[in-house]
TrEMBL record:
Keyword Zinc applies: yes
Cofactor remark from the record: Binds 1 zinc ion per subunit.
EC number annotated for this UniProt entry: 4.2.1.1
Chemical reaction(s) catalysed: hydrogencarbonate + H(+) = CO2 + H2O
Top class in the EC scheme: lyase
Cofactor: Zn(2+)
Annotated binding of Zn(2+), by residue: C63, D65, H119, C122
Zinc is among the record's keywords: yes
Protein name from the UniProt record: Carbonic anhydrase 2
Gene: can
Length: 238
């Protein structure tokens, strides 16, 4: 069980001195071998356990940005967080990818917490605050521009561009938390009396620390009449 896996040239990765000459692709393969060896050294049963299945209690909806990986940021292990990421951590109600992940997490994995995790200095949010054309991504950025429009009275008073982006990062996470609460997936879980909370976080890349925006929700009463859906009535036929 506790054996050291060797790389293709038959040297242990730890002993390779030409690491910096390798390209970024090969370093991934070597990094994997290193990771496996370290894990098995710490916990010989780690992968046996991991292969048996997952029962995470948290769904993380974060930004695709390479600096905000869910497990590292929260000090958790593989198996503990179910993850969906896209540019600027959006929860768009027509996005089948996001909805499928949410539905599976809530109704199959039965997670207890959904966290929308944004981060200061988000490139997607910054791009949405300009009138530049970037290509296909403009269609995605439109969703963030719509959040800006909802809060333009506040944002237009901020003259410092960096501060403006960071405030929109916060407002965007808050809106995405509301967007999740508006889904029938989340509301049906609440109607069934299930324990499920939706939270909004910001990761401060300059410190690594998470800021809880205190917009957590575990009920639909704050959503307003048209968004708070009534329970689905099942019509029985005889
Ligand atoms: Zn981002």
């Amino acid at each position: 069980m506790n054996q050291i896996i060797k790389s293709q040239d038959n040297t242990t990765v730890e002993n390779q001195h030409h690491q910096y000459e390798q390209d970024s692709y090969q370093s991934l393969i070597d990094g994997n071998i290193n990771w496996v060896n370290n894990r098995v050294k710490e916990d010989p049963e780690f992968f046996t356990r991991l292969a048996k299945g997952q029962s995470p209690e948290v769904l993380w909806i974060g930004c695709s940005d390479s600096r905000v990986p869910a497990n590292e940021v929260t000090g958790t292990q593989p198996g503990e967080i179910f993850v969906h990421r896209n540019i600027a951590n959006m929860c768009v109600h027509t996005d089948m990818n996001m909805l499928s992940v949410l539905d599976y997490a809530v109704n199959v994995l039965k997670v207890k917490h959904v966290i929308v995790a944004g981060h200061y200095g988000c490139g997607g949010v910054a791009a949405a605050l300009t009138n530049k054309q970037f290509g296909l991504i403009d269609n995605w950025l439109r969703n963030i521009k719509d959040v800006y429009r909802l809060h333009s009275h506040e944002l237009d008073r901020i003259t410092d561009e960096k501060a403006k982006v960071n405030r929109l990062v916060e407002l965007n996470v808050t809106e995405q938390v509301y967007n999740l609460c508006k889904t029938t997936i989340v509301q049906n879980a609440w109607n069934d009396g299930r324990e499920l909370s939706v939270h909004g976080w910001i990761i401060d890349l300059s410190s690594g620390l998470v800021k809880d925006l205190k917009v957590s929700s575990n009920a639909a009463h704050h959503l307003g009449y048209v968004y708070q859906v009534e329970e689905l009535q099942v019509v029985e036929t005889h």
